[in-house]
Amino acid sequence: MSVLLFTTFIPNLNQLLPQLISQYGSLIYIGLFALIFIETGIVILPFLPGDSLLFLCGSLAALSGHPLNIWLLIVLLAVAAILGDSLNFEIGEHLGTYLTRNKKLSRFIKSEYLDRSERFFQKHGKGAIFLGRFMPILRTFIPFTAGISQMRYRDFVTYNVLGGITWILIALGAGFFFGNIAIVKAHFELIMTAIIVISLLPAAIMALRKRGGNVSGD
Transmembrane stretches, by residue range (predicted)? Predict the structure, then answer.
């Protein structure tokens, strides 16, 4: 599924999104809300285009006369990010142990990402909830791990709100202020691809390390 998403939907995002906006108008806000909510809230879907989508939305909202409103985007997508992490935390708290131990269901939750998330959480403590927002893949697993570890919800929600708002402001703001600069606009597809590659790089490095460890172990 992640390969299909990467090879079809994500590389064409900068062409597809304007078409969808033109076709569906204000209804696009519902779709954007759903994408951010699912990317942060459903632990088995960490490959959805979070950073690249936000950057693109910010750059489109900066265009004169464009229907996307930057302030509405900030509010809606910040709420989506916060609610998504909250859902992920609840899933981890109430179903995490069952999901990771059930043979049929655990295959949907990659163990290497979960292990990395646990190490990151142990290293940074509560701050991992905030910092994890800026690390693709991990941003989906960190709240799930926090739920499994029975972190106090009062502590979680503080870092969740701060992290969600900050992530949305930075990602949308980067697109809004820099997405339409001549050199950026001229190489927009390349920049979008770079964002996607950087987003997936930690996962690729993790997979290579694991493979290398298995080979050396054999």
Answer: 27-48, 68-87, 159-184, 190-208
Residues 6+ apart with CB under 8 A from 151: 89, 126
Q: Is 109 helix (H, G, I), strand (E, B) or coil?
A: coil
More confident residue, 55 or 72: 72
CA dihedral 21, 186, 166, 25 (to 10 degrees): -10
The string of pLDDT tens digits covering residues 140-196 is 889 999 999 889 999 999 999 999 999 999 989 988 988 888 777 666 666 666 666
Whole-angstrom Cα distance, residue 216 to residue 96?
A: 31
Q: Please tell me whether residue 183 adopts helix, strand or coil conformation.
A: helix
CA angle 193, 80, 112 (to 5 degrees): 55
The span from the first CA to the last CA of the chain, in angstroms, equals 30
Residue 139: the pLDDT is 85
- Look at residues 86, 87, 75 and name the one whose alpha carbon lies nearest to residue 154: 86
Q: Which two tokens stand for residue 87?
A: 């859902």
Angle at 45 between CA 200 and CA 38, to 5 degrees: 115
Q: How far apart are CA 58 and CA 173, in angstroms?
A: 6
Nearest to residue 20, comparing CAs of 7, 30, 8, 6?
A: 30
What is the predicted pLDDT for the residue at 13?
A: 72
Rounded CA-CA distance 121/94 in Å is 19
Q: Distance between CA atoms of 216 and 51, rounded to whole angstroms? A: 35
